[in-house]
Prior knowledge:
By secondary structure, the chain is mostly helical. The protein has helices at residues 12-36, 41-48, 51-81, 90-98, 105-115, 121-126, 135-160, 164-172, 177-185, 190-206, 209-213, 219-228, 233-258, 283-312, 318-352, 356-370, 373-384, 394-404, 406-419, 423-430, 435-443, 448-464, 467-472, 480-489, 493-527. The protein folds into 2 domains: 7-33 and 313-489, MetI-like (MetI-like fold), CATH 1.10.3720.10; 50-262 and 275-306, Orthogonal Bundle (MetI-like fold).
Amino acid sequence: MIYSEARSFPPWYFFVPGFAIGTGVLLPLIYLLVRAFGAETGELIQIVFRARTVHLLGNTLLLVIGVVGTGMFLAGPLAWVTTRTDLKGKRFFTLLGVLPLAIPGYVMAYALLGLSGPSGTFANLFGPSFPNLWGYWGALIALSFYTFPYLFLNLRTALLGLDPTIEESAYSLGSRSREVFFHAILPQLRPALYAGGLLVGLHVLGDFGVVSLMRYETFSYALYTQYTAAYDRTYAAWLALMLLALTGSLLYLEAKLLRGSKFHRTGSGTSHQASPISLGIWRMPTYIYLSILTLASVVAPTVTIGFWMLKGVDGSYTQDFFRALSGSFLVSTPAAFLTAIFALPLAYLGVRYSSLICRTLERGAYIGYATPPLAFALALIFFFRGVPAVYQTLWILIYAYTVHFLAEAIGPVRSALYQASPHLEEAARSLGYRPLKAFFKSTFPLLRGGLTVSIAFVFLSAMKELPLTFLLSPAGYETLAVNVWSYTTEAMFAEGARYALAIVLCSVLFVGLLLMQDAETSYKYAKVPT
């Protein structure tokens, strides 16, 4: 049950910082609107309806549809066989299904480019080569292998939570296995499919690293070229708003598809699990499929990075590597702690108070996360360009990380707040503590776990972030992500390997955290009596 304070207005020490943070999220977007509509009507029509805009729209939509469709093709069977069949080694294959998250999209693109071509890893190890992966197909493969775990995790969770009595009822009415799947199981997976598809679509819309390395023109890539080559503020602002419009369309489509749908039980139901389905003659094809998927999404990129890493080990670039590593830590660490601090008042307002303004402030934080990073970076450039004390300093980069990843930090803190009884604060107040001190004495100690997870999430996300870092960092500032991108664009795969490997190792920590949470959740469910 969601708790709501009896008072109609929250205390100032939560509301004031919450309002300031919410305003900070919206300011860059407001500036984009002002800049975009600053041109005359004739110029606006020429900008919006030019042929290049239609071309970019077609390319972007084609990539989103292709990656989401490919992700469903890869994730669907994997989620099914690891949850509902008698497959041996389910935990192992579940781990392999999540591991691609440890390889950021631009690192996956680096691996694909380093693998293909006459001088690529494949040609060096096996002799024959295959053509370089450029353009649409290269971007499709790199983004599909990087993002399909989002669909896999959503579908896997949904399949584990299905009520088996629905299937049993369908079988008792004479339905066949195929009919049960399409009419009883698949409809219940719609929320997971939509949520996973939305995540994948948002990642594709906001991606800059993959499409730039693969030379495939989308709105994000056009934003980058517009900024670096023919800097036209009005056209760049309109490109950013068009990208935002596509993002908003995905969010609206997902909400509309789920509107009015109900997937919960009407009764108490049962807590037993469905019996595993025998793979039978499909056992060997299943293992072949899983092996190919693992080889393509995990083994091939890892071997490619290792191959170029060994070719590049000669003691050179060591100073550059440690400078990039320290640069990544220098901005990721304060951004992670600052984001967790900012997430606390927003999560508190959203959980403890049910007023419209409190819910709006909390949900407003998701605007920064849903905004494609390149569009958000462009808005900050426009907004802070006239402020020399901030523009092209680490402060603006830390601010960008904080606002963009705020939604990631709110989730764990909000979950911890739901588990912390508000009556603890009432008891502390009855003992004579002032309201703020009562919060820190009674509730705050229970939030440390959620805050720790928030810090870890934001830190590792910031370590992998490319477009914000590339556009907002000071001149000459190096990070692991920027160096991977820079060396890969020059086809210097050996020089970029160590940076790619460092990012993968840091990302493995994130994947390990996900798996630890999943194992803890599974243990709790296992303890529930049946």
